[in-house]
Every structure is written in structure tokens, then in C-alpha cells.
Automatic annotation (TrEMBL):
One of the record's GO molecular function terms: metal ion binding
Organism: Haloprofundus marisrubri
Lineage: Archaea, Methanobacteriati, Methanobacteriota, Stenosarchaea group, Halobacteria
NCBIfam families cross-referenced by the UniProt entry: PEP_synth, PRK06464.1
Keyword Ligase listed: no
Positions of transmembrane segments: none
Pathway: Carbohydrate biosynthesis; gluconeogenesis
Top-level EC class as recorded in UniProt: transferase
Domain Pyruvate phosphate dikinase AMP/ATP-binding: 15-319
Protein name: Phosphoenolpyruvate synthase
Catalysed reaction equations from the record: pyruvate + ATP + H2O = phosphoenolpyruvate + AMP + phosphate + 2 H(+)
Keywords attached to this entry: ATP-binding, Kinase, Magnesium, Metal-binding, Nucleotide-binding, Pyruvate, Transferase
């Protein structure tokens, strides 16, 4: 059988129908109104290549050097040719078309979507590469299915599998064929409050197809509904200027003006809201965890297009929010109070506790890494266990299924990078490198911060590729306060941009520099000044391109000497007792102006190339004197500070207390680096797990410094922002929006929730002002 109907598919069929197919099947089986459709199974693809005898040639064509871009392109083309130009056996073709004729009226427009089985492929960049086609009818259907198959061999997919030593013939692909809903109204729904977990359902709705809401080109109505009574508690009706509709003849989508009388009209009737609430409760009951649902209404019927879990993590100091996972993985990827019950969470075999630094649950073999030269032993799917991660470890961290450290807190390198990579991590266990052994199979829970003995997460369930589980362009609530995203590793830029963030609030260039493997001095000695500046320009340009025209705030170098010491050439670095208080940030830049000049040269070149979205940010300043000196160096580097947007980080109490003088020195913005501001205000080392419970970014003293700085900046017309980790916490968001901050920059995984939280606080402010 080449096809399986969604009615007959369950979550357990993931090997046959892939993640997407299994998720839709599970929803259908739960009695939820999913548009009808079927899946061309993974076996069909496999049988096709084997029986046509193209399999050997296909996989042989993949035997290339992935760094050779010509060879890569040729491999992709050969695979595409082999798959799309080989005839599909008549009986398979007929079976697919026969199934199609049973969908809708027999001539329905359908969506054709790849659904990779992914097996134990943990790499984030894999699944997102596969094709989806909308508005397909009979004549193109089989061709489109084959193109989905061929998309298994996109250049990027080949590159990643080859680089990671993953064999190309271990991957299969199913294809979902599903009736399109010609939506009259559409939107999203959170079945519980995304930040607080309260039993309130939040619905956003607009006219026409969901794409208008998703792309942010229209702001939707917002309804907050009590789950028990289905009564609307708060509603904000937006002025909906545009809508997307589908031409019923051609299937083409176009954007049109909303007729005047409908612009400010409420999109949903009470009955429709009631129906949505009913469905929201059903889907949440089914998965036993709050869901983020995409829905559409056609001809009075509500359809569910997708459902994913919302994860609400309770931290020691309150509630932190992240969303993750695809519907089918609701029980595995996310772990909040509800889904946690589904894990085998008996504490009996918990070996160690630490801080849950990057969400997700994974099992794998522990690889104890104590020296950098041991990184080679980390293969795909292993769990790195190390004292503390270093920038050189990033390539191995990308291969790993999980990360465990002895040392470090929530703002340590390991925590920041693993969150950006979407790799589950537990940091600050104290003794993992001593208590775990090489090759021991363990399960780590990056939410709860536990490490258990043995394999607890099922292979196919763990660490679903990130692009697969997060929407490419998530629904973006319109907020007056901008919501941006932090990026530390340029490879994360695409994921970061896909969040729909209003720009990058912090691009740390340390990782670009440290990933060269040499200190800047050594790199320049070996390769010349131009090569070093080129590296910076290219690294920054990748992110600036991804976000253009949205602003990207690039911070000049701020690497503590202990990180530089690990690199080739690092012997010359000072050996400091407390690198956090030492030779880093602007102090080092001002002390070594010739080194700083290379960074400034990179900025100058980017601006000259037309990247006017690049902004410059100075780290760890204490007072206006630091700024005047930096401005002087900018001028010497050929930059006119008047013409560019630049500012400082507020990371020390001194800078917060001297913000008036900083404003006089000409800054355009001040951005709170709460990781450092907290450590310097409370005298708590941010990387020391022994005092992690004292690292409180919401401490009244820290809030006092932030609050008064925002007030002064508002008075002086200086923009304010936050780019420390605390910007991802709901309580901090509430505090900052109430104080009137200009923008908030969050971690990639928290952007969407921060957008919703900001919107909620803004609405409350507006309501309070009219009441
Ligand atoms: C901060 O200090 O909050 C910050 C964002 O900078 P970093 O974490 O790189 O020190
Ligand atoms: Mg800092």
C-alpha cells in the first residue's frame, strides 16, 4: 500500500509517516477536525528507489567532499534528476491519484508536504530543508510528491549528513497530501496562558488565510477567554487593513484590502469562540499539556491545521517560558508540569542534579571530555560531559544530542550556546565528569536539570530537528515595545530570524573570533590584518543579511582572558585571578587601540557596503570617559558617530548611575546586560554553580538600577533595551514594559512567548489608562 489515510495513522506510526504525518494522524484519531488527507508512506519512497534500481547510483552520487561546493551541487542535481525523471510504477501513481480523488470533491486543492522520518537524525538543519507545495491538483500531484522525495537531497541536507558521518541511505521520507482550507477566518490559539499557565485561552483571529497573520502584515483581533465558561474576558479588536485570499480558479494567493465595513468588525462570533474553546480543551486533554494551535474557519466549520505544545518552565525564581516541540512530540520534547507526568520521572535512578539550561529530554552515551583534543570522540547522538564548555567546542556541541557540565550557571557559555543550538543541556552539576563514565547511557532532562541512568527517551522521539518543530514564520503579535532576539553563533541566525523578531538586540562577536581557533593577534600574525577583518565582516554580514532591514546590534569584543587562553596563541594572555572582573570589554579595547581598530574597520566596511541596519554596541563601559575615548577611536577609524547608530551596554552599577553623562556623550541607546549587571550588583559570580541560587536578576537592587536608568533615558530621548538572559523571563518583561523600555531582546526559544507577554502587558496598560 502506497498510501495511508490520516484517519488510520497514529503517533506510533512515525517511522512510516514521519513526524508531521503522525501528528496530524494523532489529532484526527482524537476526533479533532483536521482537514482530510493521506500520507504517501516512507516505504513507498524506499520501494521506488530500490525497485527502479536507482538506489545504488543515488547513494554513490553522495560520495563527495562536502566542502567542494561544485561537487555538492552536482550531487544534488544528480539525485534530483534520478528521482524526478524516473517513472513511478503505474500502480503506485494510480493509488496516489485514486486517494486524491477521494479527498473533497475529487478536484480539491491540496497541500503536499514532506514529512521526514528523521529516525535518529538529531541535526537541526536537516528537516527544515524539505519541500512543501500548496494548492496542488491532480495533474501536478505525483510530480510534487517526487519533488518532496528529491528534497531529501538538497545541497544543505547532503552537506550536513556527510559532515556528520550520517549515511544517506538511512533516511526516509513520507509525504502528506491534505486538503487546503480556503479560510474565511484564521488564527492561532493558546489553550492555556502562554506565560502563566492560567486556564485562560488566548485566541488571535483575522480575516482570510492565516499567512497574513503569520507574516505580520496584519494585526489580528485578540480575545482572552475563560476556559470554563467560554466567556470573553478581554478583547482587543484590531484595524485589519489587509487579508489574504485564494483565487478559487487558479489557487493563487493574493493580498487584498479588507472591505471598509469589516476592518474594525469583530472577526469571531461568540459561537465560533465557544467552538474554538471546546477544541482547545479537547486537544489539551488529549496531549495532557497546553497547546499552541493553528486553526481556520471555512463555511462555519473550524479546522485544526497544527498543534504544538507550549512549555512553561517553573524556575526557582518564578516562571520562565519556552515553546518547543511538534504536536507528536508533546510528550517527549517538552516537559512542564503536565507532560512531566508522562516521563519516567521516578527519582530512583536520578544520578545527578544541575540547572536545566536548555530544554528537552535526550538519551545517549556519555562522552567525558576533559581536554580539547578529546572532542573527536564525540559523535552524532552522544552526550558531551565536560567541566565547562569553551567556544572551540561548538562544532562538537552541534553534533551532540545533549550537554552536561560540572560548572557554570544559566548564563554560562554552555547554557547560551546550547539554547541557540536547540540542544538540551544541564549545567552546574558539580561532579558529572567524575561521577559519570565514558560510554554510560544516560538521559538528561534540560528542563528539570536531572541526569538519569539508562535510556528513557525513545530514539525517534528525542531532539526533533528544530526547524521542523518551530514554524518558519510564527504568528507575530503586534507590540509597541520591540521584541528582538540574541544571537551568539552566526549559524543560529536563520533560526533567530525565523522567530519574526524585530531585529537582533545583541550579536556577540566573541564566537566568530574564538571559532578561528587562534587569538586575534595570532590569527593576524599568521594570516594578516585583512584576513582577520574579512572574517569579522563575513560573520556579521551573514546575520545582517538574514535580518535586513531589521536592526542588528553588534557588540565589540568582550571575551574574558580565560576564554582566549584556550586558543592557539593564548599563552600570551594574562593569567587573571578573576577574569570576569578583568581585562575584557571596552577596557581591553581602549587599552589596545590597534586591535580595536580592526573591529572598527569591519564596521566601517559593512556600513560602506550599505548594511545600514548594523548598529555598534560597546560592552562593559563604566562612565562617559570610556565612551569619549571609544568615539575618538571611531573617528580615527573613519566612522562618523553622528551618522551611525551606536550605544552602550549597561552592565555595571557605575554605568547605570552615570547614564546621564553617557547620554551627553552621544549614545543612541543603552542596553541592559543583566547577566553582568546582576553579578556586579550582587557580587555573585554568574558562572559559579555554588551561588547559582543567589543569582537573582529580579533582585530589588538590580531592578532599581534598571528602572531609574529607563526613567532617565526616557527623559533624555535615549532608547533602552535589555539583552541579558533575564529579558526572556515574564516577570522581567512585565517590569520593563511597565517602566517603558523601548525593546526587549530574548533568547531564540523565548521570542514568541515574550512577544505575547509584551502584548498582554501593553494591553493591560491601555485598559488601565481608559478605566
Ligand atoms: C550580559 O552581561 O547580560 C550580556 C548580555 O553580555 P554577556 O552575557 O556576553 O556578558
Ligand atoms: Mg555582559
Amino acid at each position: 500500500m502506497a498510501v495511508l489515510w490520516l484517519d488510520d495513522v497514529r503517533a506510533a506510526d512515525i517511522d512510516t509517516v514521519g513526524g508531521k504525518g503522525a501528528s496530524l494522524g494523532e489529532l484526527t484519531a482524537a476526533g479533532l477536525p483536521v482537514p482530510p488527507g493521506f500520507v504517501v508512506t516512507a516505504d513507498t519512497y524506499r520501494t521506488f528507489i530500490e525497485e527502479a534500481g536507482i538506489d545504488e547510483e543515488l547513494f554513490e552520487a553522495m560520495d563527495i567532499d562536502p566542502e567542494d561546493s561544485k561537487a555538492l551541487a552536482a550531487a544534488h542535481e544528480r539525485a534530483h534528476e534520478l528521482i524526478t525523471e524516473t517513472e513511478l510504477p503505474e500502480e503506485v501513481r494510480e493509488e496516489i491519484l485514486e486517494a486524491y480523488r477521494s479527498v473533497g470533491d475529487g478536484e480539491a486543492f491540496v497541500a503536499v508536504r514532506s514529512s521526514a522520518t528523521a529516525e535518529d537524525l538529531p541535526d537541526a538543519s536537516f528537516a527544515g530543508q524539505q519541500e512543501t507545495f500548496l494548492n496542488v491538483q491532480a495533474e501536478k500531484l505525483v510530480e510534487r510528491v517526487k519533488e518532496c522525495w528529491a528534497s531529501l537531497f538538497s545541497q544543505r541536507a547532503i552537506y550536513y549528513r556527510t559532515r556528520q558521518g550520517f549515511s544517506h541511505d538511512k533516511v526516509d521520507i513520507a509525504v502528506v497530501v491534505q486538503q487546503m482550507v480556503d479560510a474565511e477566518k484564521s488564527g492561532v490559539m493558546f489553550t492555556s496562558h502562554p506565560s502563566t499557565g492560567e486556564p485562560r485561552i488566548i485566541i488571535e483571529a483575522a480575516w482570510g488565510l492565516g499567512e497574513a497573520v503569520v507574516s505580520g502584515s496584519v494585526s489580528p483581533d485578540n480575545y482572552v477567554v475563560d476556559r470554563d465558561s467560554a466567556s470573553v474576558q478581554e478583547e482587543t479588536l484590531a484595524d485589519k487593513k489587509l487579508m489574504m485570499i485564494k483565487d478559487s480558479e487558479t489557487g493563487e494567493t493574493s493580498t487584498v484590502d479588507v472591505p471598509d465595513e469589516k476592518r474594525t468588525e469583530r472577526v469571531l462570533s461568540d459561537d465560533e469562540i465557544e467552538r474554538l474553546v471546546e477544541l482547545g480543551c479537547e486537544v489539551e486533554d488529549h496531549y495532557e499539556t497546553p497547546q499552541d494551535v493553528e486553526w481556520a474557519i471555512y463555511d462555519g466549520e473550524v479546522y485544526m491545521l497544527q498543534s504544538r505544545p507550549i512549555t512553561t518552565i517553573s524556575g526557582s525564581d518564578g516562571v520562565e517560558v519556552a515553546t518547543d516541540g511538534d504536536g507528536v512530540d508533546a510528550t517527549t520534547l517538552s516537559s512542564n508540569g503536565n507532560s512531566g507526568q508522562k516521563q519516567s520521572s521516578s527519582d530512583g535512578d536520578t544520578l545527578l542534579h544541575g540547572l536545566g539550561a536548555s530544554p528537552g529530554i535526550v538519551s545517549g552515551e556519555a562522552r567525558i571530555v576533559t581536554k580539547l583534543d578529546q572532542l573527536d570522540k564525540v559523535s552524532e547522538g552522544d552526550i558531551i560531559v565536560t567541566e565547562m564548555t569553551m567556544p572551540d567546542m561548538v562544532p562538537a556541541m552541534k553534533r551532540a544530542a545533549g550537554i552536561v557540565t560540572d560548572e557554570g550557571g544559566m548564563t554560562s557559555h554552555a547554557a547560551i550556546v546550547s539554547r541557540e543550538l536547540g540542544v538540551p543541556a544541564v549545567v552546574g552539576t558539580g561532579s558529572a565528569t567524575r561521577e559519570l563514565s565514558d560510554g554510560q547511557v544516560i538521559t538528561i532532562d534540560g528542563d528539570k536539570g536531572t541526569i538519569q541512568e539508562g535510556q528513557k527517551a525513545k530514539k525517534e522521539e528525542q531532539h526533533e530537528p528544530v526547524e521542523e518543530v518551530r514554524p518558519k514564520t510564527p504568528v507575530k503579535p503586534m507590540t509597541a515595545t520591540e521584541v528582538k532576539v540574541n544571537v551568539s553563533i552566526p549559524e543560529a541566525a536563520e533560526r533567530a530570524a525565523a522567530t519574526g523578531a524585530d531585529g537582533v538586540g545583541l550579536l556577540r562577536i566573541e564566537h566568530m573570533v574564538l571559532s578561528l581557533g587562534k587569538t586575534p593577534q595570532k590569527y593576524i600574525a599568521d594570516n594578516g590584518e585583512k584576513a582577520y577583518v574579512d572574517e569579522l565582516v563575513e560573520g556579521i554580514r551573514g546575520v545582517a543579511d538574514e535580518f535586513y532591514p531589521r536592526a542588528v546590534r553588534v557588540r565589540t569584543l568582550d571575551a574574558p582572558t580565560d576564554e582566549f587562553r584556550q586558543l592557539e596563541g593564548g599563552d600570551g594572555e594574562p593569567n587573571e585571578h578573576n577574569p570576569m572582573l578583568g581585562y575584557r570589554g571596552i577596557r581591553r579595547s581602549l587599552d589596545t587601540p590597534e586591535a580595536f581598530a580592526h573591529e572598527l574597520e569591519a564596521f566601517r566596511r559593512l556600513w560602506e557596503m550599505g548594511y545600514d541596519n548594523v548598529e555598534l554596541m560597546l560592552p562593559l563601559v563604566n562612565d562617559a570617559e570610556d565612551v569619549y575615548r571609544a568615539v575618538q577611536l571611531m573617528r580615527e577609524a573613519g566612522i562618523d558617530p553622528e551618522k551611525r547608530t551606536w550605544g552602550v551596554m549597561i552592565e555595571t552599577p557605575a554605568s547605570a548611575l552615570s547614564v546621564r553623562e553617557l547620554a551627553e556623550a552621544g549614545i543612541d541607546f543603552a542596553s541592559f546586560g543583566t547577566n553582568d549587571l546582576t553579578q556586579y550588583t550582587l557580587a555573585v559570580d554568574r558562572n559559579n554553580e555554588n551561588v547559582a541560587d543567589r543569582f537573582d536578576e529580579l533582585h530589588p537592587a538590580v531592578l532599581e538600577l534598571i528602572g531609574s536608568t529607563i526613567e532617565t533615558c526616557r527623559e533624555l530621548g535615549v532608547k533602552t533595551s535589555i539583552c541579558g538572559q533575564a529579558g526572556s523571563k515574564p516577570q522581567m518583561v512585565q517590569f520593563l514594559v511597565n517602566k517603558g523600555i523601548t525593546s526587549i531582546s530574548a533568547n531564540i526559544d523565548a521570542v514568541r512567548d515574550v512577544q505575547h507577554e509584551v502584548k498582554r502587558v501593553e494591553q493591560k496598560l491601555m485598559l488601565d489608562s481608559v478605566r
